Amino acid sequence: MFGLFQPLPSITNLTPAEVHRGLQTKTLLLIDVREPSEFSAEHIKGAINLPLSSLSSEALATVTAGAGERTVVMQCLAGGRSAQGVKACRSFGAQVDHHLQGGLNAWKAAGLPTVR
């Protein structure tokens, strides 16, 4: 009974270099939780757009179908919405606990390429 009130594990912050490596080795699945207009203006190659405003258990299952053992990583512009996305996923029982710390801004600051 008391196990119901255990704290949730903390969010795992990944650096741009770690995410870049994971995309190259296909060990992670990057989900961009920004709105479609933001995604279409600029995004990380290989990212899948699933806006935070549309995030649900069903939507997550759809975009992760076929991902196999890849780690799901949430990403946004600066890190706030992706952290919210991790929390939302946890609320409906998904095993998601990684996000790109600093988001797209950190990715670009690290000199990594984007798609425009």
UniProtKB/TrEMBL annotation:
Q: Which domain of life is it from?
A: Bacteria
MF (Gene Ontology): thiosulfate-cyanide sulfurtransferase activity
Q: Name one Pfam family in it.
A: Rhodanese
Residue ranges occupied by any Rhodanese domain in the UniProt entry:
24-116
PROSITE patterns in alphabetical order: RHODANESE_3 (PS50206)
Looking up InterPro entries in the UniProt record yields: Rhodanese-like_dom, Rhodanese-like_dom_sf
Gene3D superfamilies registered for this protein in UniProt: Rhodanese-like domain (3.40.250.10)
* PANTHER family for this protein: THIOSULFATE SULFURTRANSFERASE RDL2, MITOCHONDRIAL-RELATED, THIOSULFATE SULFURTRANSFERASE_RHODANESE-LIKE DOMAIN-CONTAINING PROTEIN 3
What's this protein's name?
Rhodanese domain protein
Q: Which organism is it from?
A: Asticcacaulis excentricus (strain ATCC 15261 / DSM 4724 / KCTC 12464 / NCIMB 9791 / VKM B-1370 / CB 48)
